[in-house]
Amino acid sequence: MADSDILQRLEAAIAERVKADPGTSYVAALNAKGQDAVLKKIGEEATETVIAAKSGDRAAIVHEVADLWFHCLVMMGRQGVALDEVLSELERREGRSGIAEKNARPK
């Protein structure tokens, strides 16, 4: 079983790497290109995740979801959104019907 704290460690690593030299850090280089580049990368990874799922290739699905989550964490760091906020939102939704949750959202 994977270590459940990996997302917290990854969030911390991303926060450190943002400060690094863009010549030596992918995260720093991506951030230096600006928000649109980060958002474009999330779109690419989401598309690759869908393609992997359509193919049914389990290893590709795992790889692409990991890429997507990673880039979402990069974007969250840029936006000042902490992982704990997202985890709290998921926890808030736990055990609720998706339909009921959606219907309870402000219109």
Automatic annotation (TrEMBL):
State the name under which the record lists this protein: Phosphoribosyl-ATP pyrophosphatase
Record pathway = Amino-acid biosynthesis; L-histidine biosynthesis; L-histidine from 5-phospho-alpha-D-ribose 1-diphosphate: step 2/9
Record's family? Belongs to the PRA-PH family.
List the Pfam families: PRA-PH (PF01503)
Give a yes or no for keyword Chloroplast in this entry.
no
| Protein keywords | Amino-acid biosynthesis, ATP-binding, Cytoplasm, Histidine biosynthesis, Hydrolase, Nucleotide-binding
Could you state one GO biological process linked to this protein? L-histidine biosynthetic process
Q: Lineage of the native species?
A: Bacteria, Pseudomonadati, Pseudomonadota, Betaproteobacteria, Nitrosomonadales
Which compartments is it annotated to reside in? Cytoplasm
| Reaction catalysed by this enzyme | 1-(5-phospho-beta-D-ribosyl)-ATP + H2O = 1-(5-phospho-beta-D-ribosyl)-5'-AMP + diphosphate + H(+)
Q: Which NCBIfam families match?
A: histidine_hisI (TIGR03188), PRK00400.1-3 (NF001611), PRK00400.1-5 (NF001613)
Q: Which CDD domains does the annotation name?
A: NTP-PPase_HisIE_like
Q: What is its EC number?
A: 3.6.1.31
Q: Which domain of life is it from?
A: Bacteria
Q: Which SUPFAM superfamilies match?
A: all-alpha NTP pyrophosphatases
Query: Where is it found, in Gene Ontology cellular component terms?
Result: cytoplasm
Q: Mention one GO molecular function.
A: phosphoribosyl-ATP diphosphatase activity
Q: Which residues cross the membrane?
A: none
**Principal cellular location given in the protein's record:** cytoplasm
